[in-house]
Amino acid sequence: MIAMEKKKKALSDIIIVGIGMTPVGEHWGKSIRELALDAITAARSDAAGLKPQAIFVANMLAPYLSGQTQLAALLADFAGLRGIEAVTLEAAGASGGIALRQAYLALASGLVDTALVVGVEKVTDRSSAELEAALSTASDADHEAVHGITSTAQAAILMRRYIYENNMPADALAYFSINAHTNAVTNPNAMYRRAIQIEDYTHASMVSEPVNMFDAAPIADGAAALFLVRDDGSPNMLPHPRVRIAASAAISTAVALHDRTDPLELYTSAESSKLTLQQAGLKHDDIDLFELHDQYSVYAALSLEAVGFAERGQGWRLALDGAISRSGRIPICTFGGSKARGDTGGATGVYQLAEATLQLQGRAGENQIANAKIAMVQCLGGTGATAATHILELVDGS
Amino acid sequence: MEASRHWRLKQERYTLMGEICPHCKEKIFPPRDFCPACGEDARNLFQFSGRGEVYSFTTVYQAPAGYEENAPYTIALVRLEEGPMLTAQLTDMGDETVEIGMPVEMVTRRLRSDGERGMLVYGYKFRPQLARAISA
Ligand SMILES: [Zn+2]
Questions:
Q1: B130 part of contact set with chain A, CB < 8 Å
Q2: pLDDT of res. B118
Q3: Is residue B39 part of a domain?
Q4: What is the mean pLDDT of residues A109-131?
Q5: Does residue B35 lie in a domain region?
Q6: Taking CB atoms and an 8 Å limit, are A132 and B65 in contact across chains?
């Protein structure tokens, strides 16, 4: 009986068998459906042409910027998958992680055998004021957005307070941006493939004090996809080393930043990562890389603290010390992160997951982290009202 | 439709009317029926003083649609003296330089104008505390 239970558990491994990503940038010539199709086609081809039974679409802005709801049905049809189950998941910047979470639950339930997770965002068709208004829907509409707050302003408020409480140099967060840009140089999908120096950061123009242009990720068009299957245990012909989802968790809290007991404490980041470490039976030392939320540099510092890689108020030191570099103790943003790869709103999490998968499969090319076996991937929505955290693990002997 | 949405919120927006939890005495703003501290029912009204201090702040240059005519504007998280925090613009700053910990008080101002629909939305903003300005 125990042996059977064990076998059953082993059988329910959820495996990422293929990934696809478009370059992040201004895709003037492509609509949202064409962008998504590129990523879907790439992921299916990477998964040896498998057909999905269900598609989970991560998107935040299509209702505002493309006038489109039922996006998942639209994309399934456009990709030649008419007839399959299709659902769109929205949790602002956490949409990608939340979409994987839902695919994981569907596969783990046994009711779905193969699934696609597709993140897509098309933002460059609209004016910057329209885009800012659409992005500000991630905040509490009646108590934050109505006062004219923007996601940049919220990050600036957090960053000013972070610097104030921790009595640190004004350029202390620079090395998050420098690390991201260094890692993007060799990423063909990155928007900014140029290394930057500390002088670039200290001379950068302000966006919203103290956030400068190197603290803020550019938002642009992009699509990424993951192909997932429930491992049936048979010796199979999967095209790549097997990467399993070792743990999955999602947590929510108050949407309004001002409703948090301590705005500098990313509660959902802390709680969801704690759950995943418990599920997988792992410790912080076991994590070989951490793809975190870095839409603004302060979130990278706060995430490292919330998850427990740094003490409260000390996250910035990991960047300064080089611990976050590709050869450091806890590499982050290994393909450039949102800062240099480019941020794609609700699709960002799917890029993070696809990049972590490449690392574990040993397919990261010049961006490869040596001997990477276990990755933590965390997606945050808005100022962190939603967090979805996953641990991906290379299956032994695959 | 948008008009009724803003009308429903006018008591909290114009007068900073919140709630106090009858179970744990937590003071709650904005009002929300369930106490965020203890999870119990909380519907007893509580009038906030409108005084507080700046927790942190920044300036918005690239404003969302509906706010462009005010840009650039200063926006802050304000810790009310009764405990809760809220998001609001700072106004009437004159020569004062904003800093963390600065005492501020609530005033009613126009928050946004809804373009062609012509609807104006009013609500709270915060200015330097006058008593402090006079005694300084
Ligand atoms: Zn209570």
A1: no
A2: 63
A3: yes
A4: 94
A5: yes
A6: yes
Is residue B108 a contact partner of residue B126, using CB atoms and an 8 Å limit? no
Q: Using the beta-carbon criterion (under 8 Å), do B58 and A132 form an inter-chain contact?
A: no
pLDDT per position as a tens digit, A226-255: 999 998 766 667 789 999 999 999 999 999
Question: What SS3 string covers A110-125?
Answer: CCCCEEEEEEEECCCC
**B41 CA to middle of ligand 1, Å?**
8
Beta partners for A58?
A89, A119
- Residue B133 counted as domain residue: no
For chain A, say whether B4 makes contact (Cβ under 8 Å): no
Domains of chain A are 2-127+220-231 (3.40.47.10), 149-217+246-392 (3.40.47.10)
Q: For residue A6, what pLDDT band results from cuts at 50, 70 and 90?
A: very low
Residue type for A219, please? I
Interface test with B, best of A135, A140, A149 (most B CBs within 10 A): A149
Taking contacts as CB-CB distances below 8 angstroms, the residues of chain A near B73 are 148
Token pair belonging to B46: 């509580």
Of the candidates A186, A184, A250, A187, the residue with the CA atom closest to the CA atom of residue A217? A184
Mean pLDDT for the stretch of residues B89-114: 92
Distance A221 CA to ligand 1 centre (A): 44
Residue B135 counted as domain residue: no
In eight-state DSSP terms, residue A345 is G
Residue whose pair of structure tokens reads 């640190």 in the numeric block: A168
DSSP A7-35: HHHHHT-EEEEEEEEPPPB--TT--HHHH
The DSSP code for B20 is E
Q: Which residue of A has its CA nearest to B126?
A: A147
Q: In this complex, do A129 and B61 lie within 8 Å of one another by their Cβ atoms?
A: no
Taking the Cβ of residue B11 and every Cβ of chain A, the question of whether any pair is shorter than 8 Å is answered with no
> Residue A4's pLDDT is what?
45
Nearest Cα residue in chain B from A148: B67
CATH number of the domain where residue B85 is located: 2.40.50.840
Q: Looking at the partner chain, which of B73, B85, B89 has a beta carbon nearest the beta carbon of A258?
A: B85
What ipTM does this complex have? 0.93
Q: Across chain A, where does the E strand assignment appear?
A: 14-21, 54-58, 85-89, 114-121, 206-208, 211-212, 222-230, 243-252, 289-291, 374-381, 386-394
Number of domains in chain B: 1
Give the closest residue to A208 by CA, choosing from A263, A134, A158.
Answer: A158
Classify the C-alpha dihedral A324-A325-A330-A332 as positive or negative.
Answer: positive
| A299-332 tens-digit pLDDT | 999 999 999 999 999 999 999 999 999 999 999 9
Give the separation between CA A363 and CA A85, rounded to whole angstroms.
31
First to last CA, chain B: 46
The residue type at A4: M
Which residues form the domain of B56? 3-128
| CA A121 – CA A119 distance, rounded (Å) | 7
B 23-62 → A contacts, CB under 8 A: 30, 36, 55-62
**pTM (predicted TM-score):** 0.95
